[in-house]
Design a protein that fits this description.
The chain has about 90 residues and is α+β, with helices and mostly antiparallel strands. It contains four helices and five strands.
Length: about 90
């Protein structure tokens, strides 16, 4: 994740750091939802310079969409690697 995305995630969970935020979210998932999230597939990314968006294929798993907060991710390129920058409403 980009630094901005890490800060936003931590802010959403009342000041926890990013790693603790991820652990908190993972701890809230039931087994079926965790399994659904493991099956998420990315569709072709749309790249515009150092920014890309990618739609996620969730095969009708509304719970997976709710857990991710979105079915679209924004990625940024940092040091030649792609990092999740934001989940967009979708």
């Amino acid at each position: 994740m980009s630094a901005a995305a890490q800060e936003e995630l931590a802010k959403r969970l009342a000041g926890a750091d990013c790693l603790q935020s991820i652990k908190t979210i993972a701890g809230r998932l039931d087994q079926a939802l965790a399994a659904a999230l493991r099956e998420v597939k990315m569709k072709d990314p749309q790249v515009n310079g150092g920014i890309a968006t990618v739609d996620l294929q969730l095969d009708g798993q509304q719970g997976a969409i709710d857990a991710l907060g979105s079915a679209t991710l924004t990625l940024v390129q940092i040091d030649e690697r792609w990092h999740v920058d934001a989940a967009s409403a979708g």
